[in-house]
């Protein structure tokens, strides 16, 4: 079987190397599509990314920026003398 995806031609000839390369290609290509849809703001893409463990750094950064700054609200700990 010969297939083309993302501009790359892959040959599935039954060898372990071909299987490894096809798995990498099909996983990464689909993951990139999910990332692009998350970036476009599609809620379903966010759900799919979370379900499948696709890490989205731009989403992580946006969520971190939206969280309140907890470091400044932590009570100070008094130093104890020995």
Automatic annotation (TrEMBL):
Q: Which Gene3D superfamilies match?
A: Urocanase superfamily
Pfam families, sorted? Urocanase_C (PF17392)
Residue limits of the Urocanase C-terminal domain?
Answer: 5-50
SUPFAM superfamilies for the chain: Urocanase (SSF111326)
InterPro entries named among the record's database cross-references: Urocanase_C (IPR035401), Urocanase_sf (IPR036190)
Name of the protein in its database record: Urocanase C-terminal domain-containing protein
């Amino acid at each position: 079987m010969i297939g083309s995806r993302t501009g790359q031609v892959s040959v599935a000839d039954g060898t372990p190397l071909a299987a490894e390369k096809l798995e990498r290609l099909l996983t990464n290509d689909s993951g990139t599509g999910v990332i692009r849809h998350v970036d476009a703001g599609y809620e379903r893409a966010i759900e799919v990314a979370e379900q499948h463990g696709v890490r989205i750094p731009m989403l992580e950064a946006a969520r971190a920026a939206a969280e309140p700054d907890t470091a400044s609200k932590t009570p100070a700990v008094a130093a104890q003398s020995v």
